[in-house]
Amino acid sequence: MSQEPGPARAARPDAVEQDVDTTHAVPAPDPSSTPEQEIAIEQGFVDRVYARVDVLRGEAEGNRDTGYAHLAATVPGARYERDVFVYQAARRIADLDSQHEGLVFGRLDFDDGKVRHVGRLGVRDEEYRTLLVDWRAPAAAPFYRATAVDRQEVARRRVIRSFGRSVEEISDDLLNEDAADRLPVIGDGALMAALGRKRTGRMRDIVATIQAEQDAAIRAPGRGATIITGGPGTGKTVVALHRAAFLLYQDRSRYEAAGILVVGPSAVFMKYIGRVLPSLGEETAALYSLGELYAGVEATRQDRPEVAAVKGGTVMLPILRRLVRQTPPGAPSELRIVYRGDVFKLDAAELAAARARVFEKEPRPNLAKTEAGRALLVALWRKIKPVIEDAEPAKFSRDVGSRGEFLTFLDHWWPDLDPADVLGWAGDARRLASAAEGHLKKEAIEAVSASLRETDFSIPDVALLDELRILLGVKPQPRNRDRIRSWDGIQEVSTVQDRYYDRPERQARDAFYEDYAHVIVDEAQDLSPMQWRMLGRRGRGAGWTIVGDEAQSSWPRPRESADARRRAVPSGRLHEFHLTKNYRNSKEVFEYAAEWAKPRLRNIDLPEAVRETGVGVAQKTVAADTLMPEVAGAVVEALDAVEGTVGIIAPYDRHAELAGIVHDGRVTLVGPLESKGLEWDAVIAVDLETVAASHGAGVAYVVLTRATQRLTRIDLD
């Protein structure tokens, strides 16, 4: 029997659904308490939670170190127990560390006098009773869903805002007016305070201020497809990210093993949201922009709208299929073989006929090399048989097929093809014209070909590369089956120690991984049909969360994209959620944006802005030669007016000159497409009509809805 350390029950601060009454942990409420006294009460509870977390962390470190001390374990079962123990201890330490800041953020006082505190993770006391409920647990749901109409027996909801371990402020919502004589009510609304805080250039989690309609979407079942719609500022993106954390909490074994994929429109966007999941204690989801979903490529370049519309359309499918069948550049045009003293040749036409026969049997070139060699031997045999009547086909095939010169020819005539090289062929307008005959007009061929001659790939190119990867054929990769190890003649399954410590650190799932358990797609309204095909391969058996707003779309043919989405997303149960409140924009900014958009966009979804600033939108029209000083002046004014970030959103052909006025770390210059999903305290929108003309009214509408406090619009005469 192994003498390995066993897990301590109190070292698992997991949230549970039972025994969540924490009345024992806090004093009885006093309606005459001052804000300072109430903060002191919450500080006492927070101190107790952190003290318990320190104990748990110490226990986890001790367990980890004890496990490491048993490196000499020799019994296979003991090794396995030790390794699982060490791994779980290490995970607990990482979990406690990642969610240390603002650990306690909520409190519920119920009609019956019971109290429940809500936080970033679940914590139990020394008696294994719940001190703190994980925000994702069903027991925490009333914190987000209780309203004055449906109180769910909640009398008062309190939001606790901390810095480090210190409680800074509290804010209460009294849901049961009859409880006013026993419960003090402090503050003036946690949500408004959170919305008014300065932006830092990174999206924050919203665990303390999730609203009821957002919570419903976050907690939707993971299977099937969940569709989350809503206008600008409704929190669609942050809801989707909290949904990923919720799914991992609900079924960690499934979603950690197979993975969750989060896809956004741009690298700028992915950087902006990149800290949300880690701040919630989740590091396992894979985050990729649409320009990164092909291994080895990090595309950031945007094509001109007319080129992107061609590359993203289903018209590219027959073009790519023809392209992979073309003879590779530099392939030999003649085969000469000497057999039994005679010279036999296959000319260019005969080689082309042999190539066509190969594709009749195997359309994927990288899986057809054996068939290609067979086709060459058959073509040669048809020439040899009439000349050498006693030739035997089997002997001929063995002799010629094993020759070095034949194999060298085959390698050059039928090389392994890389998708990047094949897409590069289309940079030759003549090759593209041959593949696109009957599908594209001359002007489109020339524009697409010119784009493909650029030194880097554009974001729409990534979906084409991925399509070519499938069309060319993916060679099966040998699976690592070394899961059985021998110990003095006894075979055992490899242990956690073998997999996580003795071997190199496990690498993140690469861009070609196709077995995700759940796929989250943000700004889905912008995806082209080719991009939907690319995503569909990653989630054939997955659940899906699809987030977007049709009014903000940059894709010119929504019906084509919708058809592609239906093919990409497995059919099954559908869950739909619509978000109706704009938490980003001030009422002044959003009403201006809405008035601009309503005559230009059909079926526009206009959420209700929940706050006012009293600051109207500034609008200027200037001459071209004064544009730079006007923008520079607007930036200075914005920096003086807000504590947080300032964004300049301008047409791409203006970026070179505008870059010269960006000198402050709080200022960011982006193009209209990169602005999707982002927000700044102040925004300077430059030459909006050019944006609308180039990318559509939906993108211009996006530009007008990025500011949380101040919007300045500068147009040209």
Quick tags:
717 residues; hydrolase; UvrD-like_ATP-bd; 40% helix; ATP-binding; AAA family ATPase; alpha/beta; 6-stranded parallel sheet
How are the secondary structure elements laid out?
Blueprint: H1 35-68, H2 76-98, E1 104-110, E2 115-119, E3 123-124, E4 130-134, H3 141-145, E5 154-163, E6 166-174, H4 190-196, H5 212-218, E7 225-230, H6 236-250, H7 252-258, E8 260-264, H8 267-273, H9 276-279, E9 286-289, H10 305-311, H11 316-325, E10 335-339, E11 342-346, H12 348-361, H13 369-384, H14 393-401, H15 404-413, H16 419-425, H17 429-436, H18 442-452, H19 459-472, E12 484-487, E13 490-493, H20 496-502, E14 518-521, H21 529-538, E15 543-548, H22 558-568, E16 574-579, E17 581-582, H23 587-597, E18 608-609, E19 618-622, H24 627-641, E20 646-649, H25 655-658, E21 667-670, E22 680-686, H26 688-695, H27 697-704, E23 707-716
Parallel strand pairs: 2-4, 7-15, 7-16, 8-9, 8-14, 14-15, 17-18, 19-23, 20-21, 20-22, 22-23
Antiparallel strand pairs: 1-2, 1-5, 3-4, 5-6, 10-11, 12-13
Summarize the structure.
By secondary structure, the chain is an alpha/beta fold.
Description:
The model is unreliable at 1-19 and 479-507 (pLDDT under 50). Helix 11 (316-325) packs across helix 17. This protein is of the alpha/beta class and 717 residues long. The radius of gyration is 31 Å and the shape is globular. The strands form 6 sheets. It has a 6-stranded mixed beta sheet, covered by helices on one side. A 6-stranded parallel beta sheet has the order 9-8-14-15-7-16. It is built from 27 helices and 23 strands. Helices cover 40% and strands 17% of the residues.
